[in-house]
Write a structure and sequence with these properties.
195 residues, Rossmann fold, 5-stranded parallel beta sheet, two-stranded antiparallel sheet, 6 helices, 36% helix
Length: 195
């Protein structure tokens, strides 16, 4: 059974380790017969700033309209991005601010504090690179970027389960280590049906 997989590169540069990881995951999923789309945020033309919150409708640029269509199409979302300053890059945050809007990603409940997630029936895999050792990021920093992505964005919008893979430390990593990460990403894509 084919799965519709959307891989989103949240690093602004495709010529990055994250770009190579996104490509490796996509190749693995295609090799397994999945239907794959790859969205590179650095190639999209959009204003990452939500100018007036939800008070004024800010028209979506054509690239964001197409991105929303791809998210609606997907059954499994894969986000590949670096951890910068403990969290996600500004381009990825701006993408969520602009595209995960009320009526698309969630809806407010009348007279209630909670919302209904509108992106149910989807799963996600987060693949994050970092210079911090992953164990240190988990134990000392308490994973702010992972928690933001998993809990306060994706699960908030109904996407479950969300699995997380961390590669690091990237700084001073050997070529052989980076090759292992790429092989692991390919294998994850190949086994996407297990998610």
């Amino acid at each position: 059974m084919r799965k519709r997989v959307l891989v989103i590169l949240g690093h602004p540069s495709e010529a990055s380790l994250c770009g190579a990881i996104a490509n490796a995951y996509s190749k693995g999923a295609r090799a397994a017969g999945q239907d794959v789309r790859l969205l590179r945020l650095g190639q999209l033309d959009f204003d990452p700033i939500l100018r007036d919150g939800y008070n004024t409708i800010q028209p979506l640029e054509p690239d964001l309209v197409a991105a929303q269509e791809s998210i609606a199409w997907a059954e499994h979302l894969v986000f590949v991005y670096p951890i910068w300053w403990g969290s996600i890059p500004a381009i990825l945050k701006g993408f969520f601010d602009r595209i995960f809007l009320p009526g698309f990603a969630f809806k407010f409940k009348k007279d209630a504090l909670m919302v209904d997630g509108l992106l149910k029936q989807r799963t996600a895999h987060l693949i994050a690179t970092m210079d911090t050792p992953p164990w240190y990021y988990r134990l000392v920093y308490r994973m702010p970027g992972h928690n933001q992505m998993k809990r306060t964005i994706l699960e908030f919008c109904g996407i479950k389960p969300v699995t997380v893979t961390s590669y690091g430390p990237v700084k001073n990593s050997k070529a052989s280590t980076r090759e292992k990460w790429l092989a692991n990403a390919y294998e994850s894509g190949f086994k996407v049906l297990n998610h």
